């Protein structure tokens, strides 16, 4: 048997199994319905056209329907969807048809479900048929029976933007806090989608604003995460808690994902703590910085400790530099000017800037300790250490990091730039061997062989004294009693690639 024939064979078997399963479900539904009507299999005499009852319902043929309804077996028919005639009648925009079928159906037929677990009321709600829904509710249909996906008629009304039907279901005592998929309530769904009018409706009907889903997220967390400012405002007015913490973070941390500064400001005004660490050690500003939301970052910087580090060693500055998005450089600048510490974990901070000269010089300009990178504990000795396998650079000396196989091609360019921020340094054996293979090696040798200028050495000395204040340019240096040109020189303005690029673009 060739492959194609074999695949066809197994596919046919799979289709056959699926058909048999479907047929079994239909038969079971039919048996259940017969029990409701008190019929025996011997009582059933199928008409010549088994679909005749469904055809009459779809066409609104009341005469044919009245004729067929007197035959009990016709209303026990189940089609391939698991629908009985009452299901079909519930989705027709003709209340009279529904009344005829309902009156001829067995008691309890309104609670019968399709193969997808849908009741006639559920289908009427999905199709937006208010009159049909009213009739079914008035005649005992439960407003709380969920389909196989655990969606209730109330949630179906919300997902289909049927405000009137949601109001109707609540009037007939639908459970406002009934849980569905992920243990979410209807209010969770509204908050996630940003449906302000439904949020008002549910809260007015007694919905719990602090209900938690399976991940311990509240409606406020979902609204904040998705940037729905109006919904956040409503929930806060109705007593939603801002300090709640889910599995993925605090509500403020989730809000950082939306990058909406108005939401962040609102949460802060209501007492959200920007320095509340998560189980993982993350802070809200980590997420904002990582996602590159500049305006949101400006809201969090004044109230967040810039030195805050999560357990993996990542500070907000690391998050910004590692973002890989269009705004990561701007976010990095904001954090640096707010006093983010570039030397808290120097190797980890530098790794994200190795491939980008703009980012690299920005970090170096703001006080990065370059000389420390060349203080190798091995010196001229052999680097005898275990193979370095992790992709996270932590607690490693610079020479070991920059000489790994996927970074060594950048080593000479990075070292050449770093030499602008230090005086004479020594290269260990391992780093020197790597640098000698690069085209920048002659230029590096020229700098190393010649004495540095007195002007440059004075700048380095002054910056060493300023480092305790973290070179918070322009917050601090602008107040020094020095000429503007000297201030610019201390801040390495001649190497401020980002500012020069910004000025060119603005012109």
TrEMBL record:
<feature type="domain" description="SOCS box">
    <location>
        <begin position="448"/>
        <end position="496"/>
    </location>
</feature>
<feature type="repeat" description="ANK">
    <location>
        <begin position="247"/>
        <end position="275"/>
    </location>
</feature>
<dbReference type="InterPro" id="IPR036770">
    <property type="entry name" value="Ankyrin_rpt-contain_sf"/>
</dbReference>
<dbReference type="InterPro" id="IPR036036">
    <property type="entry name" value="SOCS_box-like_dom_sf"/>
</dbReference>
<dbReference type="GO" id="GO:0035556">
    <property type="term" value="P:intracellular signal transduction"/>
</dbReference>
<keyword id="KW-0040">ANK repeat</keyword>
<dbReference type="Pfam" id="PF12796">
    <property type="entry name" value="Ank_2"/>
</dbReference>
<comment type="pathway">
    <text>Protein modification; protein ubiquitination.</text>
</comment>
<feature type="repeat" description="ANK">
    <location>
        <begin position="182"/>
        <end position="214"/>
    </location>
</feature>
<keyword id="KW-0677">Repeat</keyword>
<feature type="repeat" description="ANK">
    <location>
        <begin position="215"/>
        <end position="242"/>
    </location>
</feature>
<feature type="repeat" description="ANK">
    <location>
        <begin position="116"/>
        <end position="148"/>
    </location>
</feature>
<dbReference type="Pfam" id="PF07525">
    <property type="entry name" value="SOCS_box"/>
</dbReference>
<protein>
    <recommendedName>
        <fullName>SOCS box domain-containing protein</fullName>
    </recommendedName>
</protein>
<dbReference type="InterPro" id="IPR002110">
    <property type="entry name" value="Ankyrin_rpt"/>
</dbReference>
<dbReference type="InterPro" id="IPR001496">
    <property type="entry name" value="SOCS_box"/>
</dbReference>
<feature type="repeat" description="ANK">
    <location>
        <begin position="312"/>
        <end position="347"/>
    </location>
</feature>
């Amino acid at each position: 048997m060739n492959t194609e024939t074999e695949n066809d064979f197994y596919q046919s078997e799979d289709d056959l199994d699926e058909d048999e399963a479907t047929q079994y479900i239909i038969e079971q539904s039919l048996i259940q319905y017969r029990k409701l009507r008190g019929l025996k299999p011997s009582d059933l005499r199928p008409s010549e056209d088994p679909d005749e009852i469904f055809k009459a319902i779809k066409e609104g043929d009341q005469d044919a329907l009245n004729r067929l309804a007197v035959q009990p077996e016709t209303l026990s028919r189940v089609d391939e969807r698991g629908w009985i005639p009452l299901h079909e009648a519930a989705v027709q925009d003709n209340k009279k048809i529904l009344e005829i079928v309902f009156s001829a159906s067995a008691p309890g037929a309104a609670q019968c479900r399709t193969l997808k677990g849908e009741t006639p009321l559920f289908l009427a709600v999905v199709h937006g048929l208010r009159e049909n829904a009213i009739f079914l509710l008035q005649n005992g249909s439960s407003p709380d029976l969920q389909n196989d996906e655990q969606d209730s008629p109330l949630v179906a009304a919300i997902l289909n933007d049927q405000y009137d039907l949601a109001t109707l279901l609540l009037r007939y005592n639908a459970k406002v806090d009934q849980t569905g998929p992920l243990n979410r309530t209807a209010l969770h769904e509204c908050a996630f989608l940003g449906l302000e009018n439904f949020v008002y409706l549910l809260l007015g009907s007694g919905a719990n604003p602090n209900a938690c889903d399976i991940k311990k997220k509240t409606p406020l967390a979902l609204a904040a995460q998705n940037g729905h400012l109006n919904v956040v405002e409503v929930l806060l007015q109705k007593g939603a808690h801002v300090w709640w913490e889910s599995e993925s973070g605090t509500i403020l941390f989730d809000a950082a994902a939306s990058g909406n500064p108005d939401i962040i400001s609102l949460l802060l005004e209501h007492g959200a703590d920007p320095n509340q660490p998560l189980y993982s050690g993350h802070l809200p500003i980590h997420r904002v910085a990582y996602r590159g939301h500049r305006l949101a970052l400006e809201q969090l910087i004044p109230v967040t400790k810039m030195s805050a580090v999560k357990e993996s060693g990542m500070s907000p500055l690391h998050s910004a530099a590692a973002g890989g998005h269009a705004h990561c450089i701007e976010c990095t600048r904001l954090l640096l000017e707010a006093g983010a510490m570039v030397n808290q974990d120097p190797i980890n901070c530098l790794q994200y800037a190795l491939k980008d000269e703009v980012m690299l010089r920005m970090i170096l300009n703001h006080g990065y300790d370059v000389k420390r990178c060349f203080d190798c504990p091995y010196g001229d000795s052999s680097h005898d250490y275990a193979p370095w396998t992790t992709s996270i650079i932590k607690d490693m000396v610079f020479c070991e990091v920059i000489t790994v196989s996927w970074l060594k091609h950048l080593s000479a360019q990075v070292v050449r730039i770093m030499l602008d921020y230090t005086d004479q340094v020594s290269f260990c054996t391992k780093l020197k061997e790597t640098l000698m293979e690069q085209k920048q090696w002659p230029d590096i040798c020229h700098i190393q062989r010649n004495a540095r200028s007195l002007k440059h050495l004075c700048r380095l000395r002054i910056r060493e004294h300023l480092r305790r204040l973290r070179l918070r340019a322009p917050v601090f240096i602008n107040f020094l009693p020095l000429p503007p040109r000297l201030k610019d020189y201390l801040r390495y303005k001649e190497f401020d690639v980002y500012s020069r690029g910004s000025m060119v673009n603005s012109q």
